[in-house]
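User: Some background: our group keeps a shared notebook of sequences we're curious about, and every so often someone picks one and asks for a predicted structure to add to the entry. Today it's my turn. The entry only has the sequence so far, pasted here. Could you supply the structure so I can complete it?
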Amino acid sequence: MNLTKVIQTSKTSGDRLTEKQGLILGITKGNGAILKINANKTFQKIIGFGGAFTEATAYTLDRMETGKRQEIINKYFHPVEGIGYSIGRVHINSCDFSLGNYTYVQENDKELKTFDLSHEKKWVFPLIKDAIKARKADIALLASPWSPPAWMKTNGKMNEGGKLLPEFRDTWALYYTKFIKAAKEEDLNVWAITVQNEPAAAPPWDSCEYMPEEERDFVRDHLGPIMEREGLKHINIYIFDHNRDIMIERVFAVLDDPKAAKYVYGSANHWYMSEEFEILSKVHHKYPDKHLIFSEGCQEGGLHLGSWLTGERYGRNMIGDFNNWQEGWLDWNLVLDEMGGPNHVGNYCDAPIVADTKTQEIHYNSSYYYIGQFSKFVKPGAFRIQVSIEETTTLQHVAFLNEDGTIVLIVMNETDKAEGFNVEIEGKFVSYNLEEHSIVTLIFYDYMKVGGTNGSEI
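Assistant: Of course. Here's the predicted structure to add to the notebook entry:
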């Protein structure tokens, strides 16, 4: 007998990561499409799931009562109470979700002698350390800069774009290495960096513009060589770190240069502006030895408390991304306050968890539960596996094989009508009726041990 565990989140029934009655694989099938799983056909290896440890998140949690702060940390990172987060993103210098512009050096310190991460030791680093304690294991960090210090830039300020002055390219490259080493002294594991957050934009907050060729040259001639010189060749470098819709032109411009490409681990990407998931596959197929990671996404335009569409946006994007070679998935702010901030330029957004610092109330948005339908059950080291469909369906789906041999199938129904479906594994079937506006995770036990080598490891 093969028992299948069923976990569901549903707008209609009120389920929130709720375990339903298990299913038993048998020889009969019901109405609806057949999703046929082939666990012998593997694709990319999964790095993990997580979110961003922004100053806004850390400061918001600092204003919550101790027990409630710990509840939120546990809900993301605790191995039983949480949803399986194992990776995180941090900003180098300030970002828009900071209390203001800041850097780690004094004005015009071209030799970086005053480099000091004391600012992060107030809120951000203690939060990461508490998350590590809650997880009872390390958290791999992706570090991204939003802007160099103002004196390194053409516009003389951290906000509103501007470019890195040519004479400071080596200095700025060394800055990354100092951040990585200083974080290591705090027992924090920076596993990878991105070259620049959203290099094609010049918003009113912390930012720095690179043309594709400028990013290529910076990686090839400055960042890559200096990372190697400083003994950090093992730290992975992701390029791009911007929206899918402009990905091909910018990524190809860097990776078509072998001297630049040798330093590049892969491409980071965001979801804003486009849901053309097939762009990821185009990048993968041209550069199959490079890796893809989703490094940022959130619901813009302030808070959206109670919205179900937010969760469905997450579910749709995660399914589309993983079916097109994405290896890891990083949400944006882990937590925001009752305004959707703080944000030093008023660029308020939503987060899966909202903590009201005035009433001390905690809001768990639909996005939290939709992310959890993936992150709690798809473990680091899993492989995406093949799912074939024998007839038309509106259901969206993706499947994985964990290292312990469990198969995880996630199926989502964004429509206004319930729809039945069948799952076939090795000639046996289970049937399920998926409610309207719901998502389900089916876990099949004891089929095989994971194999294959395509993917990335932390």
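Suggested note for the entry: Residues 449-458 have pLDDT under 50 and may be disordered. Residues 3-45+383-444 form a domain with the Immunoglobulin-like fold (CATH 2.60.40.1180).
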